[in-house]
């Protein structure tokens, strides 16, 4: 939904154990200052892809909200989010998507390397090095106040919006959030071959 804006400075989620470095299926968590030059290039590619995806999705959602309200925005998100992600993946030579501990779309299952990060409710950006030279970014999305109309508690979600969510997302779990809650995460996986190919400008 319109809440999907990664917030790098976000604080750790409440009621979550202290974070420990992740080593999962040969994916190893990396401190940003420890990245090699190639990994820094991959990092730049990841962040450019993130900006492109979120900018395109938010633009279409804002247009839908202006033209038809939140019910229209839900339909646009359902019909366009996956295609926008595919376009960004192709243009930046990455894998990219959004996921959550409480999914709206069952299509947004996480990559295997992200499962431990979801379990610990990672509240700040995390970067991992993969077994074949990949670099992954895992970026938290926190709920903005204006996004409660589609993701908030019952008093913020109208009957019309609830009906639209039930129609387009019958398995929805992505309501009941308050502003500042972790809504989910945006993830990017940059292959080794993409190092140095950061940021198409279009």
Terminal Cα span = 23 Å
Task: Tell me the major beta sheet.
Answer: 6 strands, antiparallel
Taken from the alpha-carbon principal axes, the silhouette is: globular
- Give the number of helices: 5
Strands ordered across the widest β-sheet: 1-2-4-5-6-3
Radius of gyration based on Cα positions? 17 Å
Provide the low-confidence segments as ranges: 5-16, 194-202
Helix/strand structural class: alpha+beta
Number of strands: 6
Mean of residue pLDDT values: 87
Order of helices and strands: EEHHEHEEHHE
- The share of residues in extended strands comes to 15-25%
User: Which percent bin holds the helix content?
Assistant: 25-40%
What distinguishing features does this structure have?
16% strand; 6 strands; globular; disordered C terminus; alpha+beta
Describe the structure in your own words.
A hairpin with a 5-residue loop joins strand 4 (126-129) and strand 5. By secondary structure, the protein is of the alpha+beta class. It has five helices and six strands; from the N terminus they run ββααβαββααβ. It starts with 22 loop residues before the first strand and ends in a 12-residue tail after the last strand. Helices cover 37% and strands 16% of the residues.
